[in-house]
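Lecture 7 notes: from sequence to structure.

We start with a single chain of 113 residues. Read the sequence below before looking at the structure.
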Amino acid sequence: MSPITTHVLDTAAGRPARGVRVRLELRVPGGRFRRLGAGRTDANGRLADLLPEGRLKRGVYRIVFDTRAYFRARRTAWFYPEIPVLFEIKDPSEHYHVPLLLSPFGYSTYRGS
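Now the structure, written as tokens:
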């Protein structure tokens, strides 16, 4: 399993958010971000293969959720076209789960397990 995973739940619809495009990036010197992995959430709203095991290192990471494409496909109005979530890895031996609770006009995230 990837050391970084995510789970997207569409709280307005009351179900997992299937097919959300997600990309994982690492901040590199100069403040830019380098893409490490990408994928789409499965039927349960989960994405468990963003980064190969053993590839995690200390640093600032960003997961970007393409919410525009998700809501457009459902013919639903939206406010946030994408949601970037930045977080810092201090202990690469741990697992990091970064869920997203999503609705067309708001979102919430936290460190899960």
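The longest strand covers residues 33-40. Keep this in mind for problem set 3.
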